[in-house]
Design goal:
heterodimer, A: 11 strands, B: mainly beta, seven-stranded mixed beta sheet, 11 strands
Chain lengths: 112, 117
């Protein structure tokens, strides 16, 4: 079973600070997705990265896929209270790409 | 556009009871999934389906059954409820492909919170 480890599991910072969330594995993935989940709702896709070394930006959020396609990071610049939520990474295995493997999540709290 | 609809949103079961969680999607997606989410554990795949009449086991299928008679519906059956099945269950659908500009995005329902006492 392929595993994705997210770190940190919990992060509480002040508004305006920068932060990075990591998603690591010993396995290679064909693609990697990041989702954000609000309480009482299902996860919502933020981004999909496919190519090793790929960087995608979504306003203040920067996503990077590792060169070897085994890891990814999410960097948030100048965090805002609206960024609060559970962030989940999900990898598509090389074999059976439809069976996404999810990390355990990073619960982010941005304090005003 | 409703997307993925799950019912019920909340349910309490006694040990040994049976129930079905309903899931329907109106996006004509070929792939459908059932996940469970336990605190601090992320999402674990229970069963998935690549189209009507085709289902397969995920990572944690024991104690569950599914069927896919139509493209739209993918119910999850719990036959003999156990406390270990207390969790939040999410149904999702996808037009799975990473070609032609598709992202392989999973569209999730709002979840069904199940408690087994």
């Amino acid at each position: 079973t392929q595993l994705l480890e997210q770190s940190p599991q919990f992060l509480s910072i002040q508004e305006g600070e920068n932060l990075t969330v990591y998603c690591n594995s010993s396995s290679v993935f064909s693609s990697l997705q990041w989702y954000r989940q609000e309480p009482g709702e299902g996860p919502v896709l933020l981004v999909t990265v496919v190519t090793g070394g790929e960087v995608k930006k979504l306003k203040r959020l920067t996503f990077q896929f590792g060169d070897a396609r085994k890891d990814s990071s999410l960097h948030i610049t100048a965090a805002q209270p609206g960024d609060t939520g559970l962030y989940l990474c999900a990898g598509a295995p090389i074999q059976g790409a439809q069976k996404l493997v999810f990390g355990q999540g990073t619960r982010l709290t941005i304090n005003p | 556009n409703a997307g993925v609809t799950q019912t019920p949103k909340f349910r309490i079961l006694k040990i040994g009871q049976s129930m079905t969680l309903q899931c329907t999607q109106d996006m004509n997606h070929n792939y459908m999934y059932w996940y469970r989410q336990d605190p601090g554990m992320g999402l674990k795949l229970i069963y998935y389906s690549v189209g009507a009449g085709i289902t397969d086991k995920g990572e944690v299928p024991n104690g569950y059954n599914v069927s896919r008679s139509t493209t739209e519906d993918f119910p999850l059956r719990l036959e003999l409820a156990a406390p270990s099945q207390t969790s939040v269950y999410f149904c999702a659908s996808s037009l799975f492909s990473l070609t032609g500009g598709n992202t392989g995005e999973l569209f999730f329902g709002e979840g069904s919170r199940l408690t087994v006492l």
